[in-house]
Amino acid sequence: AVVSTQSTGGLYDMHIEFKKWPLLEWEAEPIWETLRASDVMKTNLEWLNSTPTVGRVVDVLRRTKHSAFPVCVYTDKSGGYHRISRSTSFRSQLRLQGLILRSQIVTLLKKEQFRDYGEDQQDLKYSELTEFYPKYPDIDDITLTVAEQNKIIDCCKYMNPCPYTVSPYAPITKVFTLFRSLGLRHLIVVNNRGEVEGMITRAELQEHFLEQVFDLKKERTSAASSLVTTNPILPGLTINGVEAPEGQHKTLHTF
User: Fold this and answer.
1) What are the two backbone dihedrals, phi and then psi, of residue 70, each rounded to the nearest 5 degrees?
2) Could you report the per-residue pLDDT of 152-163, keeping only the tens digit for each?
3) C-alpha distances in Å from residue 94, one per residue of 63, 88, 99, 169, 197
4) Are 200 and 40 in contact (CB under 8 A)?
5) How far is CA 165 from the centre of its chain?
């Protein structure tokens, strides 16, 4: 057994690798200090408003495997708020309201916790919301009529109204520490206006992924630096009202 462990690794490590579970290292590498949350975050995310239609929710669940969804309010450039159900690209005035889990949404659908506009409905208790734990129903196993898909779900009653968030400029080492110390699975990236820019999960903090991002960022930085060239100023060129002497040079940034 000792020989097997030394040559192939531990049984638990092999099982984790086989299952592709995103297990984090004990601590982040110091070299990753140059990476920011915006470098690794996912931006092609799905989101829900506070009262989406059942049809919209089912469509999102069937198209994605995400385990959580930001609940947002769309704000236009004038500052007005519009609760919309259609998909909109991120980083376009999506004000964060909370975070709701896939397991919660599926449970609400399974227990028919949807209603018509203006209709009252009794809320689920916590024991009812976690009744199917740890194996929640699959969205493909839930059958809904056309009339039911036109009803709405009230996400505000069940979402986490204060999920952990981070700035796009936060160092990855600090993001890593948050995940390790708090046991996070999702971290929403928001700007200084409270608008969603993306999301980070444990998958984005895997060592091999961070190494790829680091190398790519290093290549881009090197390419940008190579665009800085030194060019002579033409004789007679006026700078700030003063004619530049012949032969004087200046640094020209071409990016």
Assistant:
1) -65, 140
2) 999 999 999 999
3) 21, 9, 13, 18, 8
4) yes
5) 10
In three-state secondary structure terms, 65 is coil
Both structure tokens of 130: 């976690």
Residue 10, pLDDT score: 62
- How many CA atoms lie less than 13 Å away from 130 in the CB half-sphere? 3
Task: Please state whether beta strands 196-201 and 228-232 pair in parallel, antiparallel, or not at all (unpaired).
Answer: unpaired
**How far apart (Å, rounded) are the C-alpha atoms in residues 19 and 68?**
20
Q: Which of 151, 181, 176 is nearest to 166 (CA)?
A: 176
For residue 119, pLDDT over 70 is answered with yes
> What secondary structure does DSSP assign to 145-209, as a single string?
-HHHHTSB--GGGTSBSS--EE-TTSBHHHHHHHHHHHT-SEEEEE-TTSBEEEEEEGGGG-HHH
Is residue 205 within 8 A of residue 176, CB to CB? The reply is: yes
The pTM is what? 0.73
For 182-192, the pLDDT digits (tens) are 989 999 999 99
Structural tokens at position 173: 């080492």
User: How far apart, in Å, are the Cα atoms of 252 and each of 228, 237, 238, 255?
Assistant: 6, 15, 16, 9
Other C-beta atoms closer than 10 Å to the C-beta of 70 total 25
As given in the structure block, the two tokens for residue 42 are 């996912």
